[in-house]
Design brief:
By secondary structure, the chain is mainly alpha-helical. The chain has a single domain, classed as Arc Repressor Mutant, subunit A, CATH 1.10.10. It has six helices and two strands. A two-stranded antiparallel sheet has the order 1-2. Strand 1 and strand 2 form a beta hairpin. Helix 1 crosses helix 3, helix 1 packs across helix 4 and helix 4 packs across helix 5. The two termini are about 20 Å apart. About 20% of the residues are buried.
Length: about 140
């Protein structure tokens, strides 16, 4: 399940991609358009800036803007950043401890295939795709 943090981060990135004016967009404007509290939005924006998906500028004329074009961001990278993992089962997480049942687990191939489907799906959709309605 994708949390509100992941969904809101995607909404924020799409909001900025749609603005894509090259200018900084103030936090207040994003919060108002997306109907997200400024406090919660600040937490999300901090993570996006720290990971260089956005750049922020304080003060007059400040705000946030994309560091790349909308076509260069995938939904997968945004969700994975905010969620930590998109793995469908714990044993497929990047930092998972080795499971002693892996060699005999008859469901593992199914989980791996499902995990790959989710990964491929989200990592092949860009912000530009969503803006253009290619996944509506």
């Amino acid at each position: 399940m994708i949390s509100t943090r992941g969904r809101y981060a995607l909404r924020v990135m799409l909001d900025l991609a749609q603005q894509n004016s090259g200018h900084y967009t103030p936090l207040d404007e994003i919060a108002a358009r997306q109907e997200i509290s400024k406090k919660y939005l600040e937490i999300i924006l901090k993570t996006l800036v720290q990971n260089r998906l956005l750049v922020g500028l304080r003060g007059k004329g400040g705000g946030y803007k994309l560091t790349r074009t909308p076509a260069e961001y995938t939904v997968g990278e945004i969700l994975e950043l905010m969620e930590g993992t998109l793995a469908v089962v714990a044993c497929l997480q990047n930092d998972a401890e080795s499971c002693k049942r892996n060699p005999i687990c008859i469901t593992l191939p199914m989980w791996k295939r499902f995990d790959e489907m989710i990964h491929d799906f989200f990592f092949h959709i860009t912000l530009e795709d969503l803006i253009q309605g290619r996944y509506s």
